[in-house]
Amino acid sequence: MQLTLNEKIFTFFATLIEKICGISYSLEKIYLIKGELYKIAQSFGYESLEKFYLKIRDDFETGKVNSHLLREIVDRLVINETQFFRDFHPFEVLRKYLLPKLFWEKRKDRKISIWSAGCSTGQEPYSIAMILLEYFSFQLFNYDLKIWATDISFSNLEKAKKGLYSNSEIGRGVPVHFLFKYFKSKNSEWEIREEVKALVKFDFLNLIEAEKKVFEKFDLIFCRYVLIYFSDSIKEKIWETLWNSLNSGGCLILGATELAPKSFPDMEKKIIDKVTLFFKK
Ligand SMILES: C[S@@+](CC[C@H](N)C(=O)[O-])C[C@H]1O[C@@H](n2cnc3c(N)ncnc32)[C@H](O)[C@@H]1O
Questions:
Q1: At the N or C end, where does the chain have fewer CB atoms within 10 A?
Q2: Which residue, 171, 98, 180, is CA-closest to 131?
C-alpha cells in the first residue's frame, strides 16, 4: 500500500513514540496527535510539519538526536487525563479494606510503601496520600509511609511537584472537607499542603525501562489507565515488572476498565466493592 506524505509523517512519529515510551498510535488514531505535532513543529520554529519531520528523520539517521526536542514530543503526546480520587471506589477500597489489612500485617516493621506508576500531574498519589493521612492520623509517627510516584513526562512531574491545582481540577473529585483540610488557597489556585507532599516522592521513570531500574518492592501498586495505551507485548512486559516489584501479600490495582494482561501462579484476583484487585500470594 502506497502511503501519502501525511500518512508517512504520522507513521514515522507514531513509530518514534512507540519506541520511546511504548504508546501505540495506529494510523486510525493519528488524528489524536496531529494537532500536537503541528504545535511542536511551530514551537521549534518549523513552518511546516513536513520540514520538521525531515529534520528529525535526518537527525535519527545521522545519530544527532536533540534530546530536548524528544522530551517535548513525549510531553505533548502522552495522554495525561487524570483527576483526584478517580473512579472513587478504589480509594474507598484503600481506606476500608487495603489499609486496615496492611496496618495489621505490617504491625511489626511498620513500613508501608506504595507506587503510583504513571502518576500524571500528581492527583493519584496525592489522593492516596490524603487517604493515608486520614487512616493513620493517630499513628502517623509510628509508621513509615512512602508513596513513590513516577511518570515519563517531565512537565507532568514538574506540575505534580508544585502541587498547585486550578478550581476546575479541584472540582473534579476533591471532597469539600478534604479541600479545607489538605489544600491551602494560593492566588486563584489551590496548593496541596506540606504534610501531604511530604508523603510523596516524584521521579522520572520510563516504564519500559522499569525492569532494569526498579529494585524496590511495594505493598501496593497503582498503575491505572497507563497500560491501556501500550501494545500487547509491551503491556505484558511492564505487567511482569510490576508484578515482580510487589511484596508477597501486596496488591496491584489497574483502571476500572482494564484487564490483567497475564496471570501468574501466585496471583489471586478479588473483586471488592466493584474494584478488581490482584493480590500476590
Ligand atoms: C491517562 S494518565 C493516567 C494517570 C493516573 N494513573 C490516573 O489514573 O489518573 C497516563 C500517564 O501515564 C504516563 N505514561 C505514558 N507512558 C509512560 C511510560 N512509558 N512510562 C511512564 N509513564 C508513562 C503518561 O505520561 C500519563 O501521565
A1: N
A2: 98
How many angstroms separate the alpha carbon of residue 79 from the centre of ligand 1? 7
* Domains, in order of start, for the chain: 5-77 (no CATH), 89-280 (3.40.50.150)
pTM of structure: 0.95
Q: Which residue's entry shows cell 504508546? A: 23
Mutate to test the pocket of ligand 1, among 152, 220, 242 (most ligand atoms within 8 A of CB): 152
Q: Distance (Å, rounded) from C-alpha 134 to C-alpha 122?
A: 18
What pLDDT, in 10s, does the model give residues 32-67? 788 888 898 999 899 898 999 998 999 888 888 888
Compute the CA torsion angle 205, 191, 200, 229 (nearest 10 deg). -40
pLDDT digits (tens, 9 = 90+) for 186-203: 999 999 999 999 999 999
Q: At what angle do helices 31-43 and 67-77 cross, to 10 degrees?
A: 140
- Distance, CA 57 to ligand 1 centroid (Å)? 26
> What distance in angstroms lies between residue 227's CA and the mean position of ligand 1's atoms?
8
CB atoms within 10 A of CB 209: 14
